[in-house]
């Protein structure tokens, strides 16, 4: 490959696996590698795995311009430290940026995974033509990233974009963060499954029951979606309600920031069009009138590879500034 072709290396640091990719300037993965994270052996073991993966990908790449890392936990993008990532035993505060830059003599950029996903959509996905947007990632938790005028907005301490902890009811269910009524406590995967498990008895004819073969342990958001696609009234109701809750929270965020584009990614987004429609309706209903007509809800485009592409996009983003 010609030396003039630029490439980026993206690293998606997860609790089970570390995914590595060589990504070209249009956001396409040209080489990919997955290694176990080895978190149980402490941070040094994880760092060794990262070094092994990066060394292999550098050998397979042409003219890499830098390493981008999307990491869980608290990330200080300036100091390039990763602190207390959940499910990484004994990992306190590690200056991953310094360690990898010293080893590979390439610039290293780190963001938390939600921010990396937002930058990924801005550079290579649904956010390419958008000046400002909110990215919301639905899954076990509800993450968010804010892009303002083509710049990632991190806030004063790097914690901006915690859309999952926007409360829609001050008396609502207790959230992991200590507050009440956060949207994460309504629409996180675990909550949804718990809620539907508890309510199914009242909906004995719901197609969900057949789909899980009378075994509640088989219940997932994907199954709820499948039932809705089979025109199951109860499942459709759950999706409409989930969308409304997300939409009410997003309306407040849109009002606050004067942003009208929302990009949705993550597992629960597998609910697809009915969820998107419910979110859009709720946002339009609750934002101030001057914003209402401009609201658009877009599907994230990097879904399956969002981790690697988002991480590599950090390099593209910083080099474009
Ligand atoms: Zn919360």
List the helices and strands and how they pair.
Blueprint: E1 7-13, E2 17-24, E3 29-36, H1 43-60, E4 64-71, E5 74-76, E6 81-83, E7 93-94, H2 96-104, E8 108-112, H3 113-124, E9 133-138, E10 142-148, E11 151-152, H4 184-187, H5 189-199, H6 207-211, H7 221-229, H8 233-257, E12 261-266, H9 273-286, H10 289-292, E13 296-299, H11 306-320
Parallel strand pairs: 1-4, 4-8, 9-12, 12-13
Antiparallel strand pairs: 1-2, 2-3, 5-6, 6-7, 9-10, 10-11
The protein binds zinc ion.
Number of strands: 13
| Strand/helix succession | EEEHEEEEHEHEEEHHHHHEHHEH
Percent in strands: 15-25%
Strand order of the main beta sheet, please?
A: 3-2-1-4-8
Distance between the termini: 26 Å
- Report helical residue fraction: 25-40%
Overall pLDDT confidence: 92
Structure, described:
- The protein is an alpha/beta fold.
- It is built from eleven helices and 13 strands.
- A five-stranded mixed sheet has the order 3-2-1-4-8, sandwiched between helices. Strands 11-10-9-12-13 form a five-stranded mixed sheet, sandwiched between helices.
- Helix 3 packs across helix 11 and helix 7 crosses helix 8.
- The mean pLDDT is 92.
- It binds zinc ion (ZN).
Keywords:
single chain, 321 residues, alpha/beta, five-stranded mixed sheet, globular, binds zinc ion
């Amino acid at each position: 490959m010609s030396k003039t072709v630029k490439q980026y290396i993206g690293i998606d640091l997860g609790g089970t696996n570390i995914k590595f990719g060589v990504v070209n300037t249009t956001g396409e993965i040209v080489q990919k590698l997955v290694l176990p994270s080895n978190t149980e052996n402490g941070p040094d073991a994880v760092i060794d795995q990262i070094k092994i993966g990066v060394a292999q990908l550098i050998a397979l790449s042409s003219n890499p311009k830098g390493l981008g890392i999307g990491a869980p936990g608290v990330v200080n993008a300036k100091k390039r430290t990763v602190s207390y990532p959940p499910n990484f035993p004994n990992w306190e505060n590690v200056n991953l940026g310094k360690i990898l830059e010293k080893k590979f003599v390439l610039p290293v950029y780190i963001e938390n995974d939600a921010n990396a996903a937002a930058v990924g959509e801005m550079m290579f996905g649904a956010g390419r033509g958008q000046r400002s947007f909110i990215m919301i990632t639905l899954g076990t938790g509800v993450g968010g990233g804010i892009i303002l005028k083509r710049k990632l907005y991190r806030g004063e301490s790097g914690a901006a974009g915690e859309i999952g902890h926007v409360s829609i009811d001050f008396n609502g269910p207790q959230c992991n963060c200590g507050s009440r009524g956060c949207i994460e406590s309504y629409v996180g995967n675990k909550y949804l499954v718990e809620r539907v498990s508890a309510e199914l008895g009242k909906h004995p004819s719901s197609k969900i029951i057949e789909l899980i073969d009378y075994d509640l342990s088989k219940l997932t958001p994907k199954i709820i979606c499948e039932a809705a696609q089979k025109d199951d009234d109860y499942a459709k109701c759950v999706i409409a309600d989930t969308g409304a809750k997300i939409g009410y929270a997003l309306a407040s965020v849109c009002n606050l920031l004067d942003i009208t584009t929302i990009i949705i990614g993550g597992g629960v987004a597998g609910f697809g069009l009915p969820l998107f429609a419910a979110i859009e309706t709720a946002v339009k209903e609750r934002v101030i009138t001057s914003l209402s007509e401009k609201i658009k809800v877009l599907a994230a485009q990097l879904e399956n590879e969002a981790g690697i592409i988002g991480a590599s996009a950090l390099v593209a983003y910083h080099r474009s500034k």
